[in-house]
Amino acid sequence: MTEGLRGALTLERTGARMGAERVALLAAVGRTGSISAAARELGLSYKAAWDGVKAMNNLFASPLVTAAPGGRAGGGAELTEAGQQVIATYGEIEAELAKLLSRLENRLELAPAQVLRGLSLRTSARNVWACKVISVLADRVSAEVKLDLGGAQLVSVITARSARELGLMPGVEVLALVKSNFVLLTREEAPRVSIRNRLFGVVMERIDGDLGTEVVLDLGGGKTLAAAITRESAEGLAPEPGERITALVKSSHVILALP
């Protein structure tokens, strides 16, 4: 593999990126035993490192990093067996992809960057989770897809045509995407609303901005959820780290994609 290609190589899967930077972050967490220490070692802000860890944990069926509660100041962290496997196999994937790109370049006379561009898909959705299909109930127009989200259930309603084109059936692995501003938060565990998806979590962090507030929940199993709410709503709800909150997501707001 040429050095230029190695430096540019990035694999993306529906908005969740796994490239050299993320692998370096995993390795730094393994060496230092701390997300904050890993961030300092790599010249990252703690928030950038923590966001990277959360994104990777959401992308994989099993978390790559387990972190002890520490708020925005940090906390202890260690690699799981899955995280160690990612580091160990990334080099092999990189080498195999380099061979493939070399063959394609010779056959199609395309530069590596042109080939990689077709393998990349980006999304603005803040929440991207790896899920497994439990069931599909479809009529001629719509399809209700039940998903296993690390022990919790998530329901998505899409068109029947989309379900057929994605080949959805029990056992199929999919990515579920939800924009953070589509998430509603409440302290009630059984609110009287018609929204199908109710995810229970514990507040991990709250970030207040001039225009709004981001609240991140720990859903368990290494999964997290980000909700973007107004400052007025945040002041009324007053979510604080450690408190239990219910997240509500309409089934029509859950977008599905294949890994």
Key features of this structure:
OB fold (Dihydrolipoamide Acetyltransferase, E2P), 259 residues, 5-stranded antiparallel sheet, 8 helices, 34% helix, 3 domains, DNA-binding transcription factor activity, Arc Repressor Mutant, subunit A, alpha+beta
Topology (elements, then pairings):
Blueprint: H1 3-8, E1 10-13, E2 16-19, H2 20-32, H3 35-42, H4 46-59, E3 65-67, E4 77-79, H5 81-108, H6 112-117, E5 127-138, E6 142-149, E7 152-159, H7 160-166, E8 173-178, E9 184-186, E10 197-208, E11 212-220, E12 223-230, H8 231-237, E13 244-249, E14 255-257
Antiparallel strand pairs: 1-2, 3-4, 5-6, 5-8, 6-7, 8-14, 9-13, 10-11, 10-13, 11-12
Helix pairs in contact: 2-3, 2-5, 3-4
The number of distinct helices, counting runs of at least 4 residues, comes to 8
- What is the strand tally? 14
Seen as an oligomer or otherwise, the chain set is single chain
Tell me the fraction of residues in β-strands, as a range. 25-35%
Q: Helices and strands: which structural class?
A: alpha+beta
CATH superfamily of the largest domain: Winged helix-like DNA-binding domain superfamily/Winged helix DNA-binding domain
What is the CA-based Rg, rounded? Answer: 20 Å
**CATH topology of the largest domain, anyone?**
Arc Repressor Mutant, subunit A
In total, how many domains does the architecture comprise? 3
Average pLDDT metric: 82
Return the CATH architecture of the largest domain.
Answer: Orthogonal Bundle
**Low-pLDDT segments:** 1-8, 112-121
CATH class of the largest domain: Mainly Alpha
Q: Strands of the largest sheet, in order across it?
A: 7-6-5-8-14
Q: What fraction, in percent, of the residue positions are helical?
A: 25-40%
Main sheet specs: 5 strands, antiparallel
Termini Cα gap: 25 Å
- The coarse silhouette is globular
* Strand and helix order: HEEHHHEEHHEEEHEEEEEHEE
